[in-house]
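User: For documentation purposes, I need each entry recorded in a consistent format: the amino acid sequence on its own, followed directly by the corresponding structure tokens. There are two entries in this batch. Please keep commentary to a minimum and don't merge the entries.

Assistant: Recorded as requested. Entry 1:
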Amino acid sequence: MVVAALVALGMGPGGAGMARAETCGGIYTVKPGDSLSRIADRLYKNAKMWSTIHQNNLQKIGDNPSLIRVGQKLRLACINGLPTGLPGGTDVAVATTASAPVVVAPGNAASATKINLLTADDYKPFTDRSLPGGGLVAEVVQKAMEAADPPEGFAIHWVNDWSAHLEPLLSNALLDMGFPWLQPDCAADPSQYRCENFYFSEPMFEMLIMLFTSKEHPIAFDSDDDILGKTLCRPKGYYTHDLDKNGRNWIREGKITLKSPVSVADCFEMLMKGEVDAVALNEFTGRAAIKEAGIEDRVEVAPRPLSIEGLHVIVHKSHPRAQELLALINKGLRAIKDNGEYQRIIDTHMTRIWSEL
């Protein structure tokens, strides 16, 4: 009887280690009346986090977050220790332990024999040496390359001049691969510079591009037709291919007006003045800018993404090992997805990102 009592308390053979570890995240089964915002409100205590459920289940849900089905099983990330009580959860201690910021050792000639990857700072939350693991995408690439384990080794180099990455550093194979880069709509316009000159890996991460609108002058976004005739804002130098792809041709055929001021902050200032109908940015950049400007109570996020964009590793088509290198990074990415390391990276970075938003 004593032994039975001790086992019941988790104090039998194996001692206190028999106690079940606290877990978070896991598999949620969609119930009647559910929406992603209702699930987020109930399980994350924050309805705004519907987007992270969508992003985490893009292959199941698709482009439209409203199209979830009763009985569908969704993977919920462990963020800030929530949600709890779901099957298939992750040990909270593991899921919330962030990597250390990147410290880059001085280079030496030995790097010449390695596979050399290229990135840069100032692209939060994806790449920046001040962030845990160097940022979400940097850590994914690091772990994928470790899993691929090339016999010659590899090194990641940080060169803080993004304009030099494609030309001349990658075009001349001064470094082998670069990240993280968006892939234009190469099927519709194969003449674009990146399409003509680079191969793209499988996406290291897929981000949601959102429409940020004014609560004082809201606009609907139930279909692409709702945007026709509207004025959008995206800073100068940012990509615009998503505004034309999949038959939209919003810019190409003048169906919308695009304003391109110098900065993200300028876009939100124009939104507050009523000079544009919406700001079109990736979710994290937009939410961070709203918080910095102190306008969280004046801006809302449209309830479906404008587009979903992958962040890729790229290699120049003229590189003599181009296909081999792509196969290598893709192999490593699949390995860390299969062993759970990829999800751990996403969960820990999302915990930090949402705590800052």
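Entry 2:
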Amino acid sequence: MQGKMKVAVMTDIGKIGFVERDIPKASDNEVLVKLEYVGICGSDLHYYETGRIGDFIVKPPFVLGHEPGGTIVEIGKNVTKLKVGDRVALEPGKTCGHCEFCKTGRYNLCPDVVFFATPPVDGVFQEYVAHEADLCFKLPDSVSTMEGALIEPLAVGFHAANQGGAHAGQTAVVTGAGCIGLVTMMALKAMGVSRVYVVDIMKSRLDKALELGATGVINSKEQDAVKAVSELTDGAGCDLGIETAGTEITTQQLVQMAKKGSTIVLVGYNKNGSINIPVNAALDKELTLKTIFRYRHIYPMAIEAVASGRVNLKGIITNLFELDDLQNAMDSSVRDKNNIVKAVVKMIK
């Protein structure tokens, strides 16, 4: 396919502009996807607000966005498992396939990954993208491309649940009721965890957690969250804690909330890069602390969970914006975090 496409570029911190670029051509092992929906992620907002995350520094013009869903309009000559017209969710990271981590199945740890919207690699707030066919997952008829765009954050939630050994009979606590906290809660429920409680300080987000199936919620601005979990578990503590807020206090709280011998999974990034935790309490309880980085081998599981109705991905979307309105979408998402839990950009008119 030849022609031009509209591309939204970050021209400076807090500024979005638009340019025209050539529609990319699919190589032999790629497909060309007409993008229909792209989610706005917390990392997009962080790059937009500050121009960097850790050692990754934006050098404008830069394209944000790494949560895409769309329809295939062209296939490379070696592609056999997908066809024009297939609707797909795109896994955004292409790995080398040859390093120790790729060869042992831990490809999310590949040091040479090329990941959408991670500097210097452009993201997908644009009308078309050419992507590896093996990283494009066909959506069943019951799953929309809007939901396909949100398979990416859902994959994070499932990976966190997997790392924590989530299973039936457990009581889990998720700290943070943003997008990642909510999809983690839903992933835990989909994997059979019996009781999942969500902790946050924003009532609107806690209401959303209840709407999406949380067993209960705790507003830590209004009550002692550690005491609340103790009461809910008859003093035993939770079997699994997943930290998505990225704050020191919520991490410390989870150590206090955790049952002896249980597991805590750290998901949220801390703005300062480090936190203090009550190590003595963790040692006394013989806690297992785990971390996650993105996900691996999750997309088929996540898509099936949505198709089966076990996960309500549409339910986390609070705002829908047009591509032409991306500046407002970003500004609103930064400014109104109390009400905008998850914003999605509609790429088609």
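Summary note for entry 2:
The mean pLDDT is 97.
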